[in-house]
């Protein structure tokens, strides 16, 4: 039997140090790259060998290829002038916490398969609930608790499954969901993940009711929700889930959660709050109003992997009553039975999510919270909010531009008064320059640009330069 | 505005090198730990401060706590004497490839958001298809293609959604799935992920038909599948999906894929093959028989994160016809529109999966394939298969023990002739010793122990020691 060419410990140290140094260098030279990759379809593949190697190569060759073959095809999400979509922060503590998870290589599917993976996750989500001043109902010492999901899409999906479990008294898992019998409600501004969840969960997109928003604030209108629910109930359709948004994708609108929750609960529906991007901002006391109404929510999701310095994937998801969630998702085959699970004294997180397997994701969030502290996380959020406010004041001073909505936290939505074509041409021009990257949305039928500040490397000068470039190309 | 206490580049280098060294040390001293964590429920949390820190701490303190507060609660999946469940390998190249993904921090949800993340993934899955000798239908240059999913559970779920899309001509996404109208078929030995997928997708567990297996081989019986499908069709129930297993969780049984596929297709159903653990073994020519029948499969999943040296998460999933998958999962809101997507010339992997966001997971698989080469991967698999075969010969020599099934690849299933209680007591005794860890299953009503070999650090002496311990405690 031939020996397996595993990397030796000495070589792992050598190459590992080289990768760490490469990352540190990469972060120091972020500004030397065009933000948006300039390659065309197929360019990256054309630079790769058609066939896998028969004989192993040194890792140093892989690292060299990152530089020459991969980086040209990378859009630099950490670039200080990346203002597209929502941010996806990384940070030193997070990268190293994640590296520890890779090195340990444990599976946290059950408490028994690595108790620390489960208990640190429960603990850190309680910590985060404290930092964000979330209602006690989401803490693990009562009926609720937190868990790390892959993404806010997964959170919306499992919230829907828990809601179906509750509204059908557990029959949905066995009997399935009859299309046309159930309805889900969310604002027309809500992220597409809710529509996707309806499709995945078998309700179909026809079951999704889009609630009109106030044309000025783009917040969901409670009266419209009530009208939709009333119509459904009259028709014999069961309201299952209402999804409220705190910080919509388009313009960062914040729905009136308390009012929506009251209407949802009166109809027997579950109230899930998607605060994927904005929720973490509640780490700052002056933004605690973001949590208004959460004490009536059944579940809540926000993504440290967006704006809280923790690399993907890390969606923090809390439920007020974990029994519905576990009821919807628990299946216990013989090969997963164990004494700890049978005792009922432990949490098995596989029953809180779609997949079975789980990475030790709590390590990176733990590292971030410990290394920044509450103080550091607040400074981080405040800095971006202040930069966005400053950018908005500049937009107001130029007659060619207008704000589409008031700035929301670190997001500014604006457009050219000259109209859609001019606004889109401006976006293409600045993105094509490689000097910055921002994306668009459509509000009330017209195109708007979104400047979302989020990179830890973004300073005032980058926001200033973005504004100067926008003005110059307008 | 106070400055944000980001880790400096110099500090990142220093702490990063320390983490790399810690991981190298950890892997070198794996044998000094009890394989199975010996803590009780709540022990890990009790060692953690109740509240998050207000002021940031040095990362070195986090690393120190890994040693003292986390490791006691870790079950060491990389330990050479870890024989439980199925393996979850890591390797130097994989850890470093994953680290690069964390450092780059890009989102690969769309081709446009980082072309290299998409194109490297497509390319590396073609490479893996070559290495495993998969049918051409799964390659990206035709109608099919590969994608990395979070887990085999996610793969089974999206296969079911694609199957529903196809069988309903795309109506399922809109109208939902009526419980009782559709049926899914898989063997009673198949992993619980299929039952979970039926629940998540809204079909309900009542829609799942368990196909009897041959009592000797534990392979699904085609005649039983045909009978179940005929009964359903007579009753007006639509067969949607048949899941065949290559390497079941219990004993590693391999279903007759070609026969099941023919029956499935005759009934208009989709044939998905779950080869989560075993599939990667086809990297070895003498095990190409594992792929028998795959040229008739509609989709196929195997996990490099189990037995191919790539750390979690990395499920390789291929479809023969990507239009059904994309049809089932694609939703295009305005804020995700872009020229590349509109052109149709690129793949947007968000439409191949449940979540929207995606980590640059191809990097770790690329690093593994390049650093091991086909040669190295073959040596890795062959070594474990040979060790399992040797263990099985030892079991045969001791009258107190018996094999429950012939060894399957690197998995040996066996028991004490003295019966269930003795077998379970033996498992508890050896696991409680901390010297090894294995888990059980139930075959034909009786308890069996599973010895699954998979750690890169496992040598013959570890398997020998496991056998000696089992004999001593029997």
UniProtKB/TrEMBL annotation, chains A, B:
- Listed name of the protein: Aromatic-L-amino-acid decarboxylase
Q: GO:BP terms for this protein?
A: amino acid metabolic process; carboxylic acid metabolic process
Family the entry assigns: Belongs to the group II decarboxylase family.
Cofactor(s) needed, names only, are: pyridoxal 5'-phosphate
Domain of life of the organism in this record? Bacteria
Annotated Pfam families:
Pyridoxal_deC (PF00282)
- InterPro entries tied to this protein: Aromatic_deC, PyrdxlP-dep_de-COase, PyrdxlP-dep_Trfase, PyrdxlP-dep_Trfase_major, PyrdxlP-dep_Trfase_small
What Gene3D superfamilies would the database entry show? Aspartate Aminotransferase, domain 1, dopa decarboxylase, N-terminal domain, Type I PLP-dependent aspartate aminotransferase-like (Major domain)
**Keyword Metal-binding in record:** no
UniProt entry keywords in alphabetical sequence: Decarboxylase, Lyase, Pyridoxal phosphate
Please provide, in alphabetical order, the Gene Ontology terms of the cellular component aspect for this entry: cytoplasm
Q: Please give the residue positions where the record annotates the modification N6-(pyridoxal phosphate)lysine.
A: 306
List the source organism: Jatrophihabitans endophyticus
SUPFAM superfamilies in the record, alphabetically? PLP-dependent transferases
**What Gene Ontology terms describe what this protein does at the molecular function level?**
aromatic-L-amino-acid decarboxylase activity; pyridoxal phosphate binding
């Amino acid at each position: 039997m031939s020996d397996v060419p595993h990397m030796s410990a000495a070589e792992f140290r050598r190459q590992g140090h080289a990768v760490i140094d490469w990352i540190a260098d990469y972060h120091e030279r972020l500004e030397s790259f065009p933000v948006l990759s300039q390659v065309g379809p197929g360019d990256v593949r054309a630079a790769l060998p058609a066939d896998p190697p028969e004989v192993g190569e040194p890792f140093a060759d892989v690292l060299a290829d990152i530089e020459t073959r991969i980086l040209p095809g990378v859009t630099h999400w950490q670039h200080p002038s990346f203002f597209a979509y929502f941010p996806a922060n990384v940070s030193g503590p997070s990268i190293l916490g994640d590296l520890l998870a890779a090195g340990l290589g444990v599976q946290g599917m059950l408490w028994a398969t690595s108790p620390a993976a489960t208990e640190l996750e429960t603990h850190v989500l309680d910590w985060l609930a404290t930092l964000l001043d979330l209602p006690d109902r989401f803490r693990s010492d009562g009926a609720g608790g937190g868990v790390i999901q892959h993404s806010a899409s997964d959170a919306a999906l499992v919230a829907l499954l828990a809601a179906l479990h509750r509204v059908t008294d557990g029959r949905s898992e066995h009997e399935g969901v009859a299309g046309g019998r159930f309805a889900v409600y969310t604002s027309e501004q809500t992220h597409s993940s809710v529509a996707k969840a309806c499709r995945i969960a078998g309700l179909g997109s026809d079951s999704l009711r889009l609630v009109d928003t106030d044309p000025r604030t783009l917040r969901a209108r409670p009266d419209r929700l009530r009208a939709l629910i009333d119509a459904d109930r009259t028709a014999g359709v069961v309201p299952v889930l209402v999804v409220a948004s705190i910080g919509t994708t388009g313009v960062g609108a914040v729905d009136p959660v308390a009012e929506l929750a009251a209407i949802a609960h009166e109809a027997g529906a579950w109230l899930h709050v998607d605060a994927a991007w904005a929720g973490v901002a509640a780490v700052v006391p002056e933004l605690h109003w973001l949590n208004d109404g959460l004490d009536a929510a059944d579940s809540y999701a926000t993504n440290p992997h967006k704006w809280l310095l923790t690399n993907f994937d890390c969606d923090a998801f809390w439920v007020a009553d974990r029994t519905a969630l576990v009821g919807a998702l628990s299946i216990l085959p013989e090969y997963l039975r164990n004494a700890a699970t049978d005792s009922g004294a432990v949490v098995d997180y596989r029953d809180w999510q779609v997949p079975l397997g789980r990475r030790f994701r709590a390590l990176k969030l733990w590292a971030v919270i410990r290394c920044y502290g509450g103080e550091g996380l607040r400074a981080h959020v405040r800095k971006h909010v202040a930069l966005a406010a400053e950018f908005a004041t500049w937009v107001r001073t130029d007659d060619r531009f207008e704000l589409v909505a008031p700035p929301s936290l670190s997001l500014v939505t604006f457009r050219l008064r000259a109209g859609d074509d001019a606004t889109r041409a401006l976006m293409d021009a600045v993105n094509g320059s490689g000097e910055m990257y921002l994306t668009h949305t459509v509000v009330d039928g017209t195109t708007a640009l979104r400047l979302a500040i989020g990179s830890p490397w973004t300073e005032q000068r980058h926001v200033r330069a973005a504004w100067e470039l926008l003005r110059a190309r307008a």
